[in-house]
Specification:
The chain is α/β, with parallel strands linked by helices and 341 residues long. The chain is 29% helix and 20% strand. It has an eight-stranded mixed β-sheet, with helices on both faces. It has a four-stranded antiparallel β-sheet with strand order 2-1-4-5, covered by helices on one side. The chain is globular and about 70 Å long. It starts with 23 loop residues before the first strand and ends in an 11-residue tail after the last strand.
């Protein structure tokens, strides 16, 4: 049964069709958790972003900034305290369980740890067949053929279908997790640090696989990472998050090549430089202090205690995201005064 005022999208768009509504909309989202001691963790605070069909949005920030909580709220695995999340125009707030079940195939998640996200008691064929059956009515030989096609698409052989997760390497398990996400024929995938648990030699293979699948299937992708080099390679746009809030958003090349917000500058300056000669002469923006507690966020700009350009007003006034040219939004009171990056 559809909720009053909204209807679930039954018709699926063709792969090349443009949608008038973003595939994912996050609107002034707040996520809070109450601890046993009575304190409240303010994990996500007033975040707004969107991802269009066929677009890759990279969400970056250090550990503890709220990226994963935001991702879980986008798939109804974390409570929405205020604001809204909409998938293909359908609000997740108060969505009835049956309606949420109908919507879930359209949005799939790839987690950081592929072993923990796969059922160790199920073979690969059973795992993929279960997910494939959510969308399709295939049975028997047709279902087995669909599973083999998924395995081939993610770079695994059909002979792997009868194995269990523990028989695979970390990179292979992540390929299986990606195949499971594709099995429901989603329009949106949320990938939460999908390569950070993998060996460096394997990371590039998985990144290239994700990039190719997004292109081939015209997928919307929210890609969460702390690695700006990976995000720069993969994403069309970037959103930089700090202590539950967005600091800067915009086209990936503009944000990473010419960062404006001091926090974005610090993240960019931490990207490894492959040329040893340039690395020796490179100036880095080193931050002092630790990420403040989300239980007691500081007043004013959440970054002011660690910012080298902080002035008195920064500790009092919380800046809103405002246009800064090149299609960017920046939450900094002094963005127009800062020296070029």
């Amino acid at each position: 049964m559809d909720l009053p005022g909204q209807s679930l999208p039954d018709a699926r768009p063709s792969p090349g069709a443009a949608l008038a509504t973003p595939c994912l909309e996050v609107l002034d989202l707040y996520v809070r958790f109450r601890l046993d001691a009575g304190a409240t963790v303010q994990a996500v605070r007033g975040v707004s972003l969107s991802v269009d069909q066929g677009e890759v949005l990279g969400l970056v920030g250090e550990s503890g900034c709220g990226k994963s909580t935001l991702a879980r709220a986008c798939v109804a695995l974390a409570p929405i305290s205020a604001g809204d999340v909409r998938v293909r125009g359908v609000s997740l707030r108060g969505l009835a369980p049956d309606d949420l079940r109908r919507l879930r195939p359209d949005v799939q998640m790839v987690f950081q740890d592929p072993y923990a996200s796969l059922n160790p008691r199920m073979t690969v064929q059973e795992t993929l067949a279960e997910a494939t059956g959510v969308r399709s009515q295939r049975r028997g030989a047709a279902l087995r053929a669909a599973v083999q096609s998924l395995l081939t698409e993610v770079g695994l052989g059909p002979e792997q279908a009868l194995k269990y997760p523990h028989e695979f390497s970390g990179g292979q398990r992540q390929r299986i997790a990606i195949a499971r996400a594709l099995a429901t024929e989603p329009r949106l995938i949320i990938a939460d640090e999908p390569v950070s648990a993998l060996d460096i030699s394997i990371q590039s293979q998985i990144i290239n696989l994700i990039r190719g699948l997004c292109r081939d299937h015209t997928l919307a992708l929210l890609f969460i990472s702390h690695d700006l080099a990976v995000v720069h390679y993969l994403a069309d746009r970037v959103a930089v998050m700090y202590l539950g809030r967005l600091m800067e958003t915009g086209p990936a090349d503009a944000v990473i090549s010419r960062p404006i917000h001091p926090y974005t500058r610090a993240l960019v300056s931490a990207i490894p430089e492959p040329d040893p000669a340039r690395e020796r002469t490179r100036e880095r923006l080193l931050l002092s202090g630790e990420l403040p507690s989300p239980i007691r966020p500081p007043p004013g700009c959440p970054f002011h205690a660690r910012c080298p350009w902080c002035v008195e007003a920064c500790a009092v006034t919380e800046p809103a995201l405002t246009p800064a040219g090149d299609g960017r939004l920046v939450a900094c009171l002094r963005s127009a005064e800062l020296p070029p990056s």
